[in-house]
Amino acid sequence: MKMLRFDGWSKTIACAWTILLFASLGNAQDHGRRKDDDDDRKSPTPPGLFITPTALKDAVQQDLKPGLALPYFSSNYPNFVAGEAVKAVVSPDGKTLAVLTAGMNSLYFPNNDDLTNPNLGKVDKAASTQFLFLYDIAGENKEKPALKQILQQPNAHVGLVWAPNGQTLYAAGGCDDAVYVYTKSGGSFMPSATILLNHIPSPGGCGTSGNAGNQKGLGLSVEPNVAGVAISADGKTLVAANNYNDSISVIDTAAGNVLYEYDLRPFATSKAPDGTKGGTFPYSVALKASVAGNIAYVGSDRDREVIAVNITNKTLVARIPTDGNPNGMTLSADGSTLFVAQDNQDQIAVIDTATNKVTHEIDTRGPARLDFPKNTTGAAPTAVTVNAAKKTLYAVNAGSNSIAVIPLTGPYAFNTVGLLPTAYDPTDVAFSGDGSWMYIVNGKSDTGPNPLYGYGNMAAIQFKQVDPPETNAQESTELTSNNQYQFQLEHATLVSAEVPDSENLWDLTSRVAANNGYRQEGSESDDKVMDFLHSKIKHVIYIVKENRTFDQILGDLHNGSNGDPSLALFGEGVTPSFHRMARNFVTIDNFMDPGDGSMDGWSWSMRGRVTNTETITQQINYARVNRGLSYEGEGQNRNIPSNLNTTKERDLFFDPTGATTPYSKATSSLSGGTPNILAGDGDHAATDGPAGYQQGVLPARPIYVVA
């Protein structure tokens, strides 16, 4: 949930000239209490808000559990559920639903209480893969998809598309720098080809950990990453977005090879001067057939633009600026309109593909009658899908755990008329062939406590023996093999449900509003208290103890705070200074940072939100096998400082003396040369301020909302 008003602060912040706030930022969520709720379908999320994933009519929720179809998992990891489902696509004949994951999905050999086991504490590489789940949704299985097959894929990202004949699936391989091909054979889908995109010298991609030859992404020591994919209407041409190479690869599907690569940066496509910003971090692709040739629409996530390229004659058609970060996109059935999810702006950009202009934008936060306070933000739309049978657009709001319902015809066309509740962190939605049933996938779940996980480098702890007679190194190895690290407990699910009628929309919208704590009116007493504090407080020093829950450090504080001494792993004897500060100043004992790790934890703590691309980047970056992608939560993209937009500034960052030029030296041989490596000062992992830092820069466009 990214749309929070911290009204409760008025009850805990004391009046002072300077205030010291102590909080704890954890890789593992709080081990503590959960509030009871009469509705057994309502589940908590880490920020203390709620989800109701089965509130839709006839809803069925299924875990994405590899052990249901893979014997190796059922015997070794019977309870493992895959994390971060990212794409859901229905076959052209409407009979098969494919779901792709792109999460951490890393497992250690299981702990069988045998400290002599040579595999204990080691990563099980055979199990640490991504997954492609295939469901039968034909006939009676439409209402409850029947799992029929699971395929393992080394790495993945957000790209998944069916060939028009429904016999072949193409899946993005992420840092493997490849597109994986699966073809139907004897009723099942089998791997049939691996299309290499030729940025790295050999197959194996990022699975070849530590191979410097594979670090051919455009940045500092980063590998390629294949993101979105799209296919032509005749199935002959596939387009893949090279997310870390700022280009697209145009592929001949029959031959299974790359026809050519098209650089999206302005110096290459628009004859712009070196260092002109644009075309970086291509994320999603949509492909339209026209009399002039096939037109690929590519969303540049970092640079907030959609780039239209005629892939038939290799020419740039248009650069279309967007107010937000373009994530998922889809075309109308006739190709006349492109719909683009805009993270950071909570809008869908509607683009006329005849003129390549944004005609208007749609607010996805909810119907206007919800009456959001000014500058309220955080719906974070990440994907869009057209339900042609219902003549309706559905926008997936990852931030508010909801789906916005947007009619494409009638008096409320291009307006959000309702919200549908989902599971935690929804990422995509697909529809049955007749449009009557919907299939929603999500990336996360509430992990709950993880008592069998410990500090990953416990061997370095010198102050005490954690579990005698075992050494700390032995204890660390044993706990690691319990597979209870935060990301290992985040479960992706598939929810299937009937598409709601308009009569039920307001009840469902009200459910979303209740889940997220939306309020029609502010509290007058709280407003008075906050106004008073604003007039008195001059400075706030906010201290965060990284990678720890409140209870792990301050559970034994005993100052009336909500702590559990039994969970104090690093109590007062170890952290006396933190305890002293917490007693002398303000203790934030119930400040729930929903971050999963340091990368997005810092964004939540310092910005109050997190972008959709940072969410998936973190899952992949934190994997225990090499899945590529750089650490991007603290002001860097691809290991390059994102707030420095000139070569000189970047060189001085790495060598303040100016005696050497380490940045220039490291990037001079990359495609486009040093001036064109992430030109400009964009940061695709950064959230906008309350008013949006780009608002007012671009020409004003009408934003349609229901009155």
Principal-axis shape equals: globular
Across the major sheet, the strand order is 21-22-23-24-36
Strand content: 25-35%
Q: Mind telling me the C-alpha Rg?
A: 25 Å
Largest sheet: 5 strands, mixed
The number of helical elements comes to 11
Helix content: 10-25%
- Strands, count: 36
N-end to C-end Cα span: 26 Å
Give the SSE layout.
Elements: E1 18-25, E2 43-44, E3 50-51, E4 60-63, H1 71-76, E5 85-90, E6 96-101, E7 130-136, E8 146-153, E9 160-162, E10 168-172, E11 178-185, E12 188-196, E13 226-231, E14 237-242, E15 247-252, E16 257-263, H2 266-269, E17 282-290, E18 293-300, E19 305-310, E20 315-321, E21 325-331, E22 337-343, E23 347-352, E24 357-363, E25 381-387, E26 392-397, E27 402-407, E28 418-421, E29 426-431, E30 437-442, H3 472-480, E31 493-498, H4 505-516, H5 524-536, E32 539-546, H6 550-554, H7 576-584, E33 586-587, H8 598-607, H9 612-621, E34 636-637, E35 640-641, H10 647-654, H11 662-667, E36 703-704
Parallel strand pairs: 1-32, 1-33, 24-36
Antiparallel strand pairs: 2-3, 4-31, 5-6, 6-7, 7-8, 9-10, 10-11, 11-12, 13-14, 14-15, 15-16, 17-18, 18-19, 19-20, 21-22, 22-23, 23-24, 25-26, 26-27, 27-28, 29-30, 30-31, 34-35
